[in-house]
Amino acid sequence: MEKRIWSKPEMHEFAFAANEYVAACGDSGKTYQFQCDGESGGLFDGGLVYWYPDLDAEEYRDAADWSVEEWRTHDAQFRSIYTPCGEKHEAASGSGFYWGFLERLLGANGQHDEGETVIIWRGEKNNNTHVTKNLHINTWEIAKS
Amino acid sequence: MNGNGLEKRYRANGNYVYREIAGEGVLVPSGDLPGNVMVTVNETCGFLWAQLQEPRTIGDLIAAAKAAYDDPNHELEAQIREFVEDRVKTGHIWEVR
Hints:
Structural class of chain A: mainly beta
Radius of gyration of chain B: 14 Å
Oligomer: heterodimer
Largest interface: A-B, 26 and 41 residues
Structural class of chain B: alpha+beta
Mean pLDDT of chain B: 86
Number of strands of chain A: 10
Shape of chain A: globular
Helix content of chain B: 25-40%
Strand content of chain A: 25-35%
Largest sheet of chain B: 3 strands, antiparallel
Number of helices of chain A: 2
């Protein structure tokens, strides 16, 4: 096996910044009870959250019933680490929900873990990551309408 | 103990999980570590991190790195020693008994 050239080992820490994108869905004027319930059963509750910034409005509407193959036609981007808080949050329809998937962390050094489709809510200040596995927004509990 | 630290053994902090995201090595915090901070690592750091999944001496790390890498500038040993020393201080690597 051919040897590689040694270079200095380096680590760099970085913190997540607030999301720059807003892609709202749900019925205008409603406030939902967003149940943050994305437990994964992996190494720890939660995992890595990816999202799909390139979906158009029609795709957003239909995505709840997509197959895995349909999801794979779109590019997912890494969003953040996620740990479920288990709380219900009052989430206004215009505050930004996003399609994404939650990747479980099953092994200390594996790279191909399981994932499942989720809806992400970025919180009131659009700087957090809450996740629900309930993909049908019209079944979410309504807090205000 | 010969005074140069070769007998000490080290391992990676088990609260970090290594992943490749978009082709880049990343240490994802779990457990009690802050969840909004991640650590990117370069290729040689990822190599050392993989070695450190089991307790290793600095001598073990140097031997493994020499087997995998050419070191034309003869800086591998010093940089591994510095890496381990620095990362023990930051808590990314644990000294084990």
